[in-house]
Amino acid sequence: MKLFQEFKEFISRGNVLDMAIGVIIGGAFTAIVNSLVNDIFMPLLGLLTGGMNFASLALRLGENEDDLLRYGSFLAAVINFLLIALVLFLVIKAINKLRSFKKKEPQAPAPAVKVCLFCKSEIDPAATRCPHCTSVLDEG
């Protein structure tokens, strides 16, 4: 019974649910990228190379029709991977940029007065000489 309770707590945590949603969305996104590569990029790439169909590119290894090295399909898979990696990179970069905006803290206002290092009197922050002891003050 304790094992069931621990499993129930594990499943109901936000991280597990977020991960499950991410996997589902990732699967749907993969279908979109596959369509983008197979239906748009590969035909355009074929036009640039004189009407070549990359998906049908293969090298015959033997006498049998099934002895084919399908490097065109591999090329499509590499393009799929690169596009997915590019989109993930851009999404993570955007998320990190949004997080950096949230982390910026408002700057404290400039002090209304500063203290003379020599006589410890309060003076105007723009003063370069203390009006009380006439000491020359640093600009910092």
Describe the model:
The protein is mainly alpha-helical and 140 residues long. It is 56% helix and 6% strand. The chain folds into two domains: 102 residues, Large-conductance mechanosensitive channel, MscL, domain 1 (Non-ribosomal Peptide Synthetase Peptidyl Carrier Protein, Chain A, Orthogonal Bundle), CATH 1.10.1200.120; 32 residues, no CATH class. The mean pLDDT is 81. It has three helices and four strands; from the N terminus they run ααββαββ.
Tell me the domain tally.
2
**How large, in whole angstroms, is the Cα Rg?**
33 Å
Oligomer: single chain
Total beta strands: 4
CATH class of the largest domain: Mainly Alpha
Instruction: Round the mean pLDDT to the nearest integer and report it.
Output: 81
Strand order of the largest sheet: 1-2
Please identify which CATH superfamily of the largest domain we are dealing with.
Large-conductance mechanosensitive channel, MscL, domain 1
Largest sheet at a glance?
Answer: 2 strands, antiparallel
Secondary-structure content class: mainly alpha
As a percent range, the share of helical residues equals 55-70%
